[in-house]
Amino acid sequence: MPRRTTPTEARVELTWPGKVAPPAVPVAAEPLVVREHVGEPGAWVDRLVWGDNSHALAALHAELGAAVDLVYIDPPFDVGTSHYLRKGEVEVLAYRDTWGGPAYLSMLYPRLSLLRALMKPTATIVVHVGIQVCHHVRVVMDEVFGADNFVNQVAWKRYSAHNDASQGARRLGAVHDVLLFYGMSQTRTWTTLRAPYDKDYVAKWYRHVEPGTGRRFMSSPLTAPGGAAKGNPSYEFLGVRRFWRYGQATMEALHSSGRVYQSRPGAVPRQKHYLDEQEGVPLQDVWADIRALQGTHVERVGYDTQKPEALLERIVHMCSRPGDLVLDAFSGSGTTAAVAARCSRRWVAIDRSQPAFAVSRRRLRALNRSGEAGPFAVLDALPAMRGALVERVGEAELRRRVLALHGATTWSEGQLLGGTACPEGQMGGATTSSDDQLHGATTSSDDQLHGATTCSEDQVNGAVTRPEGQLHGRRGEAAVVVASPEQRPTAADIAGWLDTARAAGAAALEVIAWMFDPSAHDVDAPAVTLWEIPRALAEGEDGRPTRAPRLSLVVEATPAGRTIRITNYAAPDSDGNWAQIGVDALVEWALDDRGDAAVFAPRWSTQRGRDGAMPSVSPAITGEGRVVIEAVDVAGRISTRAID
């Protein structure tokens, strides 16, 4: 192996615009919130984390400290394209890989430092990258983990060939990814794995086939070089006198067990070595025996960048032991967690993408049902990230941003509409309005709703404004309410807002929230629409609120108890238009008949099989308590309902 720099020599360091050194100790983050329990939790519960991994890793460090035995990450490759989840004819954006050089390194660098803080002294990290960025990432890894802790750079040959030349490419076909192995120390956990012999090697060396058994074998000399000078015994064996490697008793034992090969009578005997008893060749740093997933592979879930389980099995067995903790901070389709579970390792998987989260959870739920994975918790980083956003910009500014993204105008907080006339700046009354205002009231500023009698800023026709009853904006003829960041609006909340909106002269009500209580969808009023704030807003990206999907359910009584039937499903279609798109759009649903708990704990779940079938009716539910139903569509959108 080429010589590396030692800790005492000058360090090679990569710089780029915007590089900022991460703190030596991770900044304490708000704890992750438990969203769901799958299975009955025990002393240790595996974790699927939904949210930005920088926050999740800092929170995990505060909870676990340096507890991780193996890190595998498959971050974006900075290839300048987007990647998708594809199921049938549906194509959903999974993530954008359009960082552009410096931004990519600025994303990865602090996360590598966070990962290092979570790793035990015996731990290994494997970073899976493309050839476009591997050289930069390796220098950054040298800086974070130390050049002396470099272990291997493995070339994983994904494809047999690319026909780039026929398309005019003036370069060699690119058929491999790069796996960068670094340890925390020289005492890292390591198991030497072996691969099967190459078929050409087998044909050359294991060319003999044993009659009767069909076992392939090679032979090696039983004679001893050096003869008497080396103290080797001389005697006759199978009609041949020579100096032999072993004593006569050992030779007879080999012969009686069929381990001696003599090509013809009188030929010098040789020892047999059967192919099926060989361990194989120790793994090298070029892996050409595992291919990328194709459409016919059973394990495919439709995720563009999904890696084969065989690749992760190799890494897990080589760099960890049963019971060790494996972490993947860019978990994508959940392959690392699935493999870790099957290999009796504990796991933590993190991803911010909603399609990735939905696919991973569905995959791990199925493994839990089959007994191949233990119980796990679903944790959410959104509440903490949302809280940090509110602390940074303030609740009023955040509401203003949400209204602007929704295309709504605002008016002074706390004002509702009352009687016949209000001064400028308050909610007014009478008969006319400008074209961009709600009708049936006197003219007022664009960011106000209109009503009737004169009102003070905090009163409506003499009534004190309830904080949860405020209207915050309007869009067209609809009043708009933006729920507070911590609030999960219920059916009662929405009914109160609807009364207030109607009193204000609004023809409709739009409620915008980060998340709704399952009962919110029980409001069966055509004038009410529910809108969800995109999670990306808490992660520093803009995004318009989207219509919250809605399940239609029927409860049926049977002698064994209640059953729940899904009868329809409505959500934005591929063009963004609200539509009844039907039950066939759902890929999974689950129910929790202990629905009083704050954490969803499915007692029963099902998902669409490869044949396209999925039951639309639940098993019978005994008892009369609240039941929470959750369904996921092919785009990863989650819809909940509650049955009391």
Widest beta sheet: strand line-up: 1-20-2-19-18-3-6-8-7-17
The CATH class of the largest domain turns out to be Alpha Beta
CATH superfamily of the largest domain: Vaccinia Virus protein VP39
Counting DSSP E segments of at least 2 residues, the number of strands comes to 35
**Contiguous helical run count:** 11
Secondary structure class reads alpha+beta
Task: Determine the N-to-C terminus distance.
Answer: 67 Å
How is the CATH topology of the largest domain named? Answer: Rossmann fold
Secondary structure: helix percent: 10-25%
Tell me the major beta sheet. Answer: 10 strands, mixed
CATH architecture designation of the largest domain: 3-Layer(aba) Sandwich
Q: How much β-strand is present in the residues?
A: 25-35%
Query: What's the domain count?
Result: 4
Stretches with pLDDT under 50, minimum 5 residues: 413-469
Q: What average pLDDT do the residues reach?
A: 86
What does the overall shape look like?
Answer: elongated
User: In angstroms, what is the radius of gyration?
Assistant: 33 Å
